[in-house]
């Protein structure tokens, strides 16, 4: 028994001696653990703008390690090695020399650039335009295209390495008419020689875009894989003009939707146009932040019926372009659905296309099929002045395009127009018309088709009637208006169509 007690005493003494000899290390370890626990506790309260990079963390750890070495070292000479912090995602360049280079008494100065003010090219998507042509849609630095001479080369790289690569010059189209901001929209057309079929055996390959900044003394080129075709995925019959069979007669390509949109105005707009364009039509909307949950609920019944498709494009907000990059968006829509529709219409969600009762949209477009593009005249309607012929109570219960019945007749040199195109004949497009197409354009279709524009009404989350009038000709704020009941007379038919098609699920929609 006494022997066991002596053995326990010896073990305890040995443990105490061990702890005493390494007390400095234990203190340092416990202190480091305390610091880490403190940081973990405080981390959720640190603002999101604060960040620490991996290089800075390595730097701090190296300083702690160096301090530990200096405390525990028994050598009279302490050597501390501190790592030089490495900047993440950066290119290390030599600093400018302190001594300028002298050349015949002239001081030679040098300049070193770091980082990028804007990307050389921002890709949205790439589409086939035929057996030997492609369209690449994206953004590029606006100053680069205004003050420099960037160029593009397209290269097809077959998946089968025994086949030859093919190069051709890319033809750039700037579609935003000078409205770009930091970025401008660029459509690069890659057309290979007419005798060449790209990917003829359908064995697959990749299209590369070589984007050069145009610097005369530097070869700065980004090689970007913009499209990959896997084996047996290309349907070449789409590009055979003798076997055309479009899925839709009419397709709507909408611009970027942003802001606080009115669910009720969107409800009226989609119900009207689904009825107007008929069964073989489709609507493509682009959500740049404007399709809230309430607006989505209005569109949901039509999505379920296969009449509406929504593209979430909010990520493009990182790149500062004109009006949420709407030029890029409509060009992507044009090429994405180019072989799926006979006609593509471009107008906004506060605008309503109209044809007189003696026509139908089918008869009008059939009569204009010799044209690649038509532009449509605007009927400017007030978005504040309402007709109170039915009395105030009934007026407020009517839909927006029923009660906003006063048309602006002030004479102006010109008003904006909207348009429709036969997409197979168009290489790139704009917001109000296309300037890059083959074939004829008709600007005189006023007797057949026009559109009513309720400017700004879509972004008002309130009752639109600010003033009620009962006259056929009025003056408001020194501007003349006339009563135009064209759209008002269609209201009941549109409401009936909505109820018959999707039921009364939207009857409680709010402004």
UniProtKB/TrEMBL annotation:
Q: How does it sit in the membrane?
A: Single-pass membrane protein
| Record keywords, A-Z | Glycosyltransferase, Membrane, Transferase, Transmembrane, Transmembrane helix
InterPro entries xref list:
Glyco_transf_92
Indicate whether Glycosyltransferase appears among the record's keywords.
Answer: yes
Q: Which GO terms describe its molecular function?
A: glycosyltransferase activity
Q: Which residues form a coiled coil?
A: none
One GO CC term of this entry? Answer: membrane
UniProt keyword Transferase present: yes
* Residues that span the membrane, as ranges: none
Signal peptide feature range: none
Tell where it localizes: Membrane
Q: Look up the EC number in the record and give it.
A: 2.4.1.-
What family, per the record?
Belongs to the glycosyltransferase 92 family.
UniProt-recorded name of the protein? Glycosyltransferase family 92 protein
Output the lineage of the source organism.
Answer: Eukaryota, Viridiplantae, Streptophyta, Embryophyta, Tracheophyta
